[in-house]
Batch of 2 targets.
Target 1
Amino acid sequence: ESFLTRLRQTEPHLRSFLHVSDTVLRQANELDEKIKRNEEVGPLAGVLVGVKDNICTAGMPSTGGSRILEGYQPPFDATAVRKIKELGGIVVGKTNLDEFGMGSTTEGSAFQVTANPWDVSRVPGGSSGGSAAAVSARQCVVSLGSDTGGSVRQPASFCGVVGLKPTYGRVSRFGLMAYASSLDVIGCFGSSVEDAGILLQAISGHDKLDATSSKQEVPDFTSQFISLNLLESKPLKGLRIGLIRETLDDGVDSGVNSAIRGAASHLEELGCSVSEVSLPSFSLGLPAYYILASSESSSNLSRYDGVRYGNQVTADELNALYGDSRAKGFGHEVKMRILMGTYALSAGYYDAYYKRAQQVRTIIQKSFKAALDEHDILISPAAPSAAYKIGEKKNDPLAMYAGDIMTVNVNLAGLPALVLPCGFVDGGSAGLPVGLQMIGAPFDEEKLLKVGHVFE
Ligand code: GLN
């Protein structure tokens, strides 16, 4: 009840949700009854979870933030959602996003603009801005987002919450609307590292419905939160941290820079050794990402043809039905991505763009591997600035894309990364949060959670 009251009070200002469930209290009461009868309830019993609206939920709208899916209600739950429900979690509603995850501000939603709870004249980041704002404003306990190029980590940074992007394949993508399938992963938001870890525990693991989900064993991420001795003077003794040189100074807001350097000193105080590490290919990540993500999306979005899902226009013949449904159903940014992707994949340009970008991706993977052979964890800012004003970059897509520089490389390499608040810069009435990004070796979420938990 307290969460729902808070949600009702804050939602008119934030607009984080596209849909709020009307069965939350009923589900909570049913859990209470079970407890009274001494029946088993799961470890997430009564935990309110927000779910990004590009993740399918049975019997609840799932629009992907797009008009083309307005009114669509999937007949099934995404695997991650199913697992949450099986453990007693309650889906409180569907959170706002940039259409199909394409954007960094949540202004690209076809339905509404979400505001940043720290300053409602600013963006919450994106594309999972609704999920980040909802946890930040305590409209729900934890939430699910998706991260193709930073969409969990950048909004976590802008909204001052914890955001966790798991290793590619750690969490099933079944029921996640595909944007760029080789990069997409479902991720977690929480107001503490522990909360994000508990949610990761719930949704991880192999799923036969997603052939790219990994068979790697899922460790117990959460027991370490209890066993860690936070009173020890150097709890992280012996850990080697690499501060990525290319992510500091040039093009980075000075307040962000000093917050990250401050975080590095704090890690040293906790016993880590911190050294700078160079990833010379870092700046290639952005162009490679936008070519690959657009290419994959141009193929993935061909399923929205006005026949199989959602909205259909009336037309005299089949091609007009496809064309008009897509023309009316997709927003501007989505159309631009489809055009860019189709161009990059077309005969004559394929080698120059798509193939080249794949080669760059391999170089980036190798340079991360080399850096992670020498270090336990790499650190960087999660974004080059704190949250900016709504409208500021709306008509300048390249400026918006440039803000993804800190996060896209991690998706190209398929690595896990954790973002957590590490300081403030001036802005708003209370300052604006800055996020520290910690990047780990494949399937080493456990270490990220440990270091993050000690750090906060
Ligand atoms: N901002 C990036 C994009 O628009 C990343 C989005 C995401 O991770 N879904 O593609």
Note: The longest helix spans residues 351-374.
Target 2
Amino acid sequence: MGGTGMSENPVVERALVVERAAGESKRRDETHGPGLAGLVAIVTGGASGIGAAVARRLHADGAQIAVLDRDISGADAAFAAFTADVSDRASVDTAVAAVAERFGRIDIVVNNAGIGAQGDISANDDDEWARVLSINVTGIARVTSAALPWLRRSPSASVCNTASIASTTGLPQRALYSASKGAVSALTRAMAADHLREGIRVNAVNPGTADTPWVGRLLDAASDPAAERAALEARQPHGRLVSPDEVAAAVAYLVSPASGSTTGTFIEVDGGMAQLRLRPE
Ligand code: NAD
């Protein structure tokens, strides 16, 4: 670099421009308070259920939204949607590059795509164990590492992972699913430690049973859907299913620049299921 502070190398030049732009947008963010205005958020699994609610909420808070989903047919037409399978690194890399190309920045990653698994430890074969862990756990590593170069440049970088009540509480017939969500919690803390000094916060939400198409499919498959729904409602101390919007509100809090001192932790959105013991009515 010469005495002018400018570089003749176009790559360094561009890095300087990006750095200056980040500084300017940091000042803008500081003056704009807790909103997400000017920030770009990736929401995986954003075409359905909790992810769709998160996309709507972060958009309402001012963020531009990029939905990444293996099936974008249900994605809100107001959002940019990119087809990606989080279990396929090439697919993830292509989609994240397309988001960066489209918006020029990535500030927030909500790793929400996930699938269920039922039964005890003998219920699923090795291929199914590998498939569920690849989507629910390694998917977070794939998406976040693809976005890392962009998060490092963000003035307000944040990652929020969707874990579960199953991360902390033993539920019957959910061995593989619980193993995957326990791993999400451990990964959340490890990521938070690794990236703290780069200015990237990493947190999680632990929903209880939420009223989403996924749970709708489980109820439809039950021999008595009404009884199954009543049992799921009764399992949560507040006596009902969690709404996707309630989970989205917790995600919005965690990813907001207003939560700058909150990292490596989680919010339970479970009607008290993980922490409370009520006497039967
Ligand atoms: P959902 O099935 O309604 O939505 C999940 C979305 O993820 C879908 O759009 C689906 O296409 C997408 N998806 C699935 N596999 C994918 C893949 N390999 N690549 C990209 N996208 C993929 O489910 P939901 O209930 O909204 O669940 C969302 C998240 O919340 C999951 O991680 C789930 O484990 C977690 N969760 C759900 C509940 C609940 O009761 N619904 C409770 C706790 C945690």
Note: The two ends are 74 Å apart (CA to CA).
